[in-house]
Structure formats: structure tokens, C-alpha cells
Automatic annotation (TrEMBL):
Ranges for domain Ketopantoate reductase N-terminal: 3-160
Protein name, per record: 2-dehydropantoate 2-reductase
UniProt family annotation: Belongs to the ketopantoate reductase family.
Top EC class of this enzyme: oxidoreductase
Organism whose genome encodes this protein: Paenibacillus sacheonensis
Pathway: Cofactor biosynthesis; (R)-pantothenate biosynthesis; (R)-pantoate from 3-methyl-2-oxobutanoate: step 2/2
GO molecular function list: 2-dehydropantoate 2-reductase activity; NADP binding
Length: 314
């Protein structure tokens, strides 16, 4: 398959490395020329869970240079995988995505939080847009190096059950992902899948960023645990009102994620420490916005949103 991956962050690099290693034709599009040149000239370095290092030759270009040269038309992608964070989904990027997905090329959206699916569907009316969530662990250590820090699963499918999307491209992508050693599956319940991940991110991400602790440390302090419970309870109530169907014990699942990723720093904590914009407006801010629409209180989500935004300023 011919696959364009937009985004040279941890997940974008991890997907590019594994798919290219499996023989898929990959074009990795980055924000900067410098990263693209490093990847093209030196290769993508993948550090596996067990510590083994693999150098993978990859085709790469900056997104703007690639579309300006019209190279996307010659490449004729079968899929576009969007692996940038929510703050990057601005008008300029949406215009570039229209070029990449021209002619109805399907797009897979790998963003955390909510709000992006509706935005992408409005902006790309000719292309089927699929939601995806991944629990793979990855850490980008420099422009061309990614560490695979935890094996997980990539789940994708149509955003709503009413969408009538062609099954063939989905099955082709599923085959490519599984062939690359990526545990992937199709789901007809993507809204639930997105909400379940959001429910975890809405607690772990802001609180680890505020308290400057790793995931496993978060529930170890009784005061932090009390805040976790309050934030989780409010978020679950809002998401249930918005259509969450799962009847699992979501609190125990949250504690299980903290334990399983105990040594990890959340992406929001890493963003704060690196001085980068976080996804707080699309995680807790997204939940608070849904609560407003539903007429429900969201004091905890609004509070952590304000605290994380204050950390942006400092």
C-alpha cells in the first residue's frame, strides 16, 4: 500500500518505522525541512522494547514542500494517516490535508481528545474520515529516533454507525497494520472507544502535569487520589450523557492504566516540561464544552484546564 503519514512525532515515527519495515510504501511528512532531511539522509532509528535498534530507510519531506511540488499527485496514496496533535489542526494544515486526500482518499485520525472528527469531516467532505485510538507507547528522543515503550492496540472505524463507508480500504489498512506487527482491529463502536480513552486521558494527563509526577505516582498520594476520583466521576457522568455505552468498571480500568504505565510520563507532562502547547483544550476543555451543551456542571474539568493553561504561561 501507498500510505502518507502526516506528523513526525512519536506515534507518526513509530507507525512509519513499522509499516516501512514491513514493506509498505511510506511517505512521512513533517513540519520542518530539517527533520525531513535527517530522516531521508540518515534513516529512521527504531528502538524496540527489548532495546534492539533498527535503522529503517524512509522517504520524508516537509508537508509544505511536498504539496507545493505536487508530489502527492504522483504518489497517489491509498491512505493518509494523521498523527499530529490537536493544536496543529489549524486552517493551514486543513488546507494541506485537502490536497493530500483529494479524490476521496480515506484519512485516519489518531488525535487524543474530542472535536477533531467533526472538524475533519467538515473540512474534507469528499473523503471518508475514520476515527482511531491507540494504546501503543512511544517516545521520540530526537528528530529521527523513536523508542517503542509499550505494546498496545490500534482500533479504528467509522465515527458514527450511520456512516456508509467502503469496507475494502478499511480491510486493506487492517491487513497492512497487522502485517507490520501492529495489533489492530476494526470497531463499529468508535465513539465509545474514543470516549473510553478520553476518560483516562482526562484524569492522568492534567493531574500528572499539574503535580509533575509519573503515571504510577499519581494515585499513591491520598490527596491526589481524591482529586482523581472527583475528576473521573464528573467526566464519566458527562460522557455517559453524551452517549458512552460501556458498562465496565472505568475507575478500576484507570487505576490499571496507572499501574501498567507506572514509569511513563504523560504526554501532557512532557509537553509542559518542553514548553509546548498541550491538548488540554481538546481533552478536559472538550469535556467541559460537551457539559455546557448538555446543561451539566463541569467544575473539575474547568479547574484542571485553567491550571494547565497557567502552566503554559509560565
Amino acid at each position: 500500500m501507498r500510505i502518507i503519514i502526516v506528523g513526525g512525532g512519536a506515534i507518526g515515527l513509530l507507525l512509519a518505522a513499522r509499516l516501512a519495515r514491513a514493506g509498505e510504501r511510506i511517505m512521512l511528512l513533517t513540519r520542518t525541512d530539517e527533520q525531513a532531511e535527517a530522516l531521508s539522509s540518515e534513516g529512521l532509528l527504531l528502538i524496540e522494547n527489548a532495546g534492539a535498534e533498527r535503522r529503517i530507510q524512509i522517504s520524508s519531506s516537509s508537508l509544505i514542500r511536498y504539496t507545493a511540488a505536487g508530489e502527492h499527485r504522483a504518489f497517489a496514496p491509498d491512505w493518509v494517516l494523521l498523527a499530529v496533535k490537536q493544536p496543529s489542526l489549524n486552517e493551514a494544515l486543513l488546507a494541506e490535508l485537502k490536497l493530500l486526500a483529494a479524490g476521496g482518499v480515506p484519512l485516519l485520525a489518531l488525535q487524543n481528545g474530542i472535536g477533531h472528527m467533526e472538524l475533519l469531516q467538515r473540512s474534507l467532505p469528499q473523503s471518508p474520515v475514520y476515527a482511531a485510538v491507540t494504546t501503543e507507547g512511544a517516545l521520540r528522543t530526537d528528530a529521527r529516533t523513536v523508542m517503542h515503550t509499550g505494546t498496545g492496540q490500534l482500533t479504528f472505524g467509522s465515527w458514527t454507525e450511520s456512516e456508509k463507508n467502503d469496507a475494502k480500504p478499511q480491510k486493506m489498512l487492517l491487513q497492512a497494520l497487522n502485517g507490520a506487527g501492529i495489533q489492530a482491529k476494526l470497531s463499529k463502536e468508535m465513539k465509545d472507544q474514543v470516549f473510553l480513552k478520553l476518560l483516562i486521558n482526562a484524569v492522568i494527563n492534567p493531574l500528572t502535569a499539574i503535580f509533575q509526577v509519573k503515571n504510577g505516582e499519581l494515585p499513591q498520594d491520598p490527596h491526589r487520589l481524591k482529586l482523581m476520583r472527583a475528576l473521573h466521576g464528573e467526566s464519566e457522568q458527562i460522557l455517559r450523557a453524551d452517549g458512552l455505552q460501556s458498562n465496565a468498571d472505568h475507575w478500576e480500568r484507570l487505576l490499571g492504566v496507572c499501574a501498567a504505565t507506572a514509569a511513563n510520563e504523560s504526554s501532557m507532562l512532557r509537553d509542559i516540561r518542553a514548553g509546548r502547547m498541550t491538548e488540554i483544550n481538546w481533552i478536559n476543555g472538550g469535556i467541559a464544552e460537551r457539559a455546557k451543551q448538555l446543561g451539566l456542571p463541569s467544575k473539575m474539568n474547568e479547574a484542571v484546564r485553567a491550571l494547565v493553561e497557567a502552566l503554559h504561561v509560565s
